[in-house]
Design a protein that fits this description.
Blueprint: H1 2-18, H2 34-42, E1 53-64, E2 68-74, E3 79-85, H3 86-89, H4 91-99, E4 105-110, E5 112-114, E6 120-123, E7 126-131, H5 147-152, H6 154-160, H7 162-184, E8 188-189, E9 195-196, E10 208-211, E11 216-220, H8 225-233, E12 238-246, E13 258-267, H9 271-289, E14 293-296, E15 299-302, E16 308-311, H10 312-320, E17 328-329, E18 332-333, H11 335-344, H12 355-366, E19 375-381, E20 390-391, E21 394-405, E22 408-415, H13 420-435, H14 446-453, E23 459-465, H15 466-474
Parallel strand pairs: 3-6, 8-12, 16-19
Antiparallel strand pairs: 1-2, 1-4, 2-3, 4-7, 5-6, 9-11, 10-11, 12-13, 13-23, 14-15, 17-18, 19-21, 20-21, 21-22, 22-23
Length: 492
């Protein structure tokens, strides 16, 4: 059916061209947006009209009534009614009835008035075809619900669902709020490489590509951390970056292979400084969105700082019934202790499962449910955090927090490791885990260790998933709802 309609529309476009109609003019000057025209009508008295305005948009509804028609034009801001009358337009009215269809873009000129029912309307004195649509709008244009179609053809989703446009507008405000908070704290926004000889700064499998001119394999970045730390070493004391990172991992409601990461580093700071900074960012986002409370996954959330601080070793002992150190061995995991505890709490513990993954499963099974309200979970195992400083007096733990909101991890921060000898040893331990089959461990980055040997001040660092942040602050349960063009399986 759609193919037949498309053929008819193409035939119509051919006919209009043969009649000399310009279907896609280069420009059309408008004087008012739909919202501005609606604002003009608010103060109009009965039978009053404004000076002529020029508005443009997509025709989303047409109602023909013999010698007159009403239609609605929709632009990026609002939807506006227009009134077309044969007595005013003459032959142009017949052209409108015959040649213009829902989906086409049109420009109209005329005064603004109010109808008998009080609706602000433009009385059309002239109209121009601005773009002929060759495909029909979806059948359920006013409320497209097919989830897969919405993700694959986001343009139809945005056309059909005002709430989708509002959500992505909110996401943009969230990003702007992050920048405003960071700029207000004296941070410098920078850009670091995406295409790398070696991908590091996170525990994840990278995407691999090949550079033809250099004839070398390269990787898409999985984090921005190691380059931003080089800037701290180089003398910049407060830096941040907002950009895409890429991880060759599964696709589900919380993960997309490419996503937007915000990372920042501050000299002479620690993970406590980063927690306070994240609270400032959250406050700035609340101000931008005009609210401090929202609903997420059916439960209310209060996003007003300060957030709760939860010590991971204490929570682990309470929820798992034993000391966290039972599954740790200084800077690595006690594999036997992890397997035993996994079975104790009722989890499947396949031998091939990396220790870090098993730790995450135990955490999710026993502690995650406590983390609906905004919470900083403090002090993580050294074994899964090769780039952070140890808790004083305890080599098994590092000064790291993860911030959870609505049981979603949205931020991750460290008191950054700045001892190059310790850093090399941890990279070497990660290399041993990689040799044992864990592809998501950190590779040894000689260039970064060399830079660190020049000297790096005490530093606090933080990474925030912008998409996860958008999910929480818009009350959206799926990451695909907050990424304009998510990665999807190939269509059958």
């Amino acid at each position: 059916m759609e193919d037949e309609i498309r053929k008819l529309k193409i035939d119509k476009a051919r006919e209009l061209r043969e009649r000399g109609v310009e279907l896609y003019p280069h420009r059309w000057l408008r004087t008012h947006s739909a919202a501005q025209a609606l604002a003009l009508g608010q103060s109009l008295e009965k039978d009053a009209k404004t000076e002529p305005v020029r508005v443009a948009g997509r025709l989303v509804q047409i109602r023909e009534m013999g010698k007159a028609s009403f239609a609605h034009l929709q632009d990026g801001e609002a939807k506006l009614q227009v009134y077309l009358k044969k007595d005013i337009l003459g032959e142009a009215y017949a052209s409108f009835v015959k040649d213009f269809h829902v989906g086409d873009f049109a420009g109209v000129e005329g005064p603004v008035f109010k109808t008998r029912t009080g609706e602000t309307t433009v009385e059309v004195r002239s109209l121009t075809m601005l773009a002929k649509a060759l495909r029909p709008l979806p059948e359920k244009f006013h409320g497209l619900k097919d989830t897969d179609l919405r993700y694959r053809k986001r343009h139809l989703d945005l056309l059909s669902n005002p709430e989708a446009r509002a959500l992505f507008t909110a996401r943009s405000k969230i990003v702007s709020a992050v920048r405003k908070a960071m700029d207000g704290q004296g941070f410098l926004e920078v850009e670091t490489p995406i295409l790398l000889a070696q991908a590091g700064g996170a525990s994840a499998k990278p995407f691999e590509t090949h550079h033809n001119a250099l004839d070398r394999d390269m990787f898409l970045r999985i984090a921005t951390e190691l380059y931003l730390k080089r800037l701290i070493i180089g003398g910049f004391e407060k830096v941040y970056e907002i950009g895409r990172v890429f991880r060759n991992e599964g696709v589900d409601t919380r993960h997309n292979p490419e996503f937007t990461m915000f990372e920042c580093y501050q000299a002479y700071a620690d993970y406590g400084t980063m927690a306070e900074l994240f609270e400032r960012i959250a406050s700035e986002i609340c101000a931008a969105l005009g609210r401090e409370t929202l609903e997420y996954r059916g439960a209310p959330l209060n996003l007003k700082p300060p957030f709760r601080r939860l010590d991971l070793p204490a929570a682990w002992k309470e929820r798992c019934g034993e000391d966290l150190h039972e599954v740790l061995s200084k800077k690595s995991f006690n594999r036997e202790g992890l397997l035993r505890l996994g079975k104790k709490v009722g989890l499947e513990t396949p031998e091939a499962l990396p220790s870090a993954k098993l730790f995450d499963r135990i955490f999710d099974a026993r502690i995650l449910e406590l983390l609906h309200e905004p919470t900083f979970v403090m002090n993580y195992p050294t074994a899964i955090t090769p780039l952070a400083k140890c808790v004083p007096g305890d080599e098994s733990l590092v000064e790291r927090f993860e911030c959870f909101i609505g049981t979603q991890e949205v931020a991750n921060a460290y008191t950054e490791l700045n001892d190059p000898i310790d850093q090399r040893e941890r990279f070497e331990e990660q290399a041993r885990q990689r040799a044992g089959g864990d592809e998501e461990t950190e590779p040894l980055d000689e260039d970064f260790v060399e830079a660190m040997e020049v000297g790096m001040p005490p530093t606090g660092g933080m990474g925030v998933g912008i998409d996860r942040l958008a999910m929480v602050f818009t009350g959206t349960p799926s990451i695909r709802e907050v990424i304009l063009f998510p990665t999807l399986k190939e269509e059958a």
